[in-house]
Structure formats: structure tokens, C-alpha cells
């Protein structure tokens, strides 16, 4: 005897959600479809089975005896599928190298290079975690973290120095001050409102000292919580910013930003850090790839 064909999967999903949640409207919201779509699927299922699956219960629906039997079967089947999918996702995350970095580095530098990274290091699947700060307790739960930081390195970490950090002033060629700044020394910046970020409050004072200027004479303009927003504002021509060279390399090459006085070392480094005692050979492969990419900036 041949096995009867299963009803359409969408109809079963609609039925299971309606029975579990007690109404078509709630099922529609759960599955992100319209009320009418759920009603149509329920009619398809009842026509396929030749039985009524629901009866009115006040303003809601209640499964008939046939509906209760099907609900129990669907609940078990869909529950097993959900558990299997969750287990596969956990296994995939467990197999991936969990790498933390700031949201700004992730958005502006890593994501544009992910396709190349995946092609060059297919043996290093990555799961990304946006992490601000340096050498924090939260970062110790990760496999590795990509940071801009300055030595001395704290205990409890193995730190791989990838490249010296270099920062510089950047401005859009559309900004009214762009042409003037290119023709004058760094002191011309003292009268200019400066875009700044709370995530790196020391950036402008350190740059001023490195160029023989008094940090107290700097005029801070619009502030942003993250470096990513700061650089978006600079590209939009909203002001003069300061940035690590790799994060603006693409904009400089395309002419969307100018660096009037180039870039200078800060004494800090791009580093790939791992909790001390962690031994994953994939970290060494990733460190080599990152160092090579940073050298091209």
C-alpha cells in the first residue's frame, strides 16, 4: 500500500502556529504573513485531509478532536526540527573561530575584505563579535581579538603585533577648508572645529603634541560615540577628522578623503591578542593574513 502524500508544508506550519497560539491573527504575526494567508493555508489543509480542524471558541479558535491529534503530531515534528536546527547552529559556531573587534574596524576595514579572507583562509571560518575597549574581561571569552592598542601588554594575554598604528588628519575635498589646509602647516588646524569621538578622546591631543602644538588650543566640534560615525561624517564633508590609516585607505585611494599632512606612528600597534594558554593554530594563520593586509594600507 502506498503512503499517502503529506500536506503542503506551509499549510502545516500555518496550522501548527494557529493551534499553538490560539488564533489566526497571532499565527500570522508569528510567521510574518497576512491574516488572509493563514486562512487560505488552513482551508488548503482541511480540504487535503477532508476534516474540520478548528471550531470557534469565543473570539478565538479551538482544535477539533482531529485538530488535536494533528496538533500533537505537528508539535513533536516541528519541535524536533527546531532542536536539530539549533544544534547545527551551535555546532557551526563551535567550529568557527570567534574573533572580536570594534564595530568601526569591523564595518570599515574587515567587512570589505571578508571575501578575500574567506578565499585565502577557507580553513578559518570566523564568527564575529563587536567588542569595544582593549583587553577587557568580556574579550577573554573569545578565541581572539583584533585591537588598536599600546604596550605594555597586560598579563594574561598573548599579543601578536601586526603593524604599527599610524594616524593622520583627513578631510573631504568638498569641505571648505580642504584646499587651504593642503597649502599650510599643521598649525592651521588650530582654528578649525574638529570632529572627534568619545571612544578615542586622546587621539587629537596626542596628534597635537606630536606636531609641536598645544592641545589646549584645539577646538573640538561635533562629537560621535564611535569612530565609524566620525569617518562617515568626514566623508560627507561635515568636518575635519583624525583616523588610523587603514580605516581610510580606500577613501584616500578613491579621492573621497585627503590627508593634508600624511600619517605618523603613534607608538601603538594593530595587534591580534588571545587569552594566555589558548592554542589554536588558526590564530597564527589569521595573524599572518592580517599583517599582510595591513602592510598594503
Automatic annotation (TrEMBL):
What Pfam families does the record tag this protein with? HTH_1 (PF00126), LysR_substrate (PF03466)
- UniProt keyword annotation of Transcription regulation present: yes
Provide the alphabetized UniProt keywords: DNA-binding, Transcription, Transcription regulation
Q: Which SUPFAM superfamilies match?
A: Periplasmic binding protein-like II, Winged helix' DNA-binding domain
The UniProt record lists the keyword RNA-binding: no
Q: Where is the HTH lysR-type domain?
A: 7-64
Q: Record's PROSITE patterns?
A: HTH_LYSR
What domain of life does the UniProt record list for this protein's source? Bacteria
Fetch the InterPro entries from UniProt: LysR-type_TF_proteobact-type, LysR_HTH_N, LysR_subst-bd, WH-like_DNA-bd_sf, WH_DNA-bd_sf
Family, similarity comment: Belongs to the LysR transcriptional regulatory family.
What is the designated name of this protein? LysR family transcriptional regulator
- The scientific name of the source species is Stenotrophomonas nematodicola
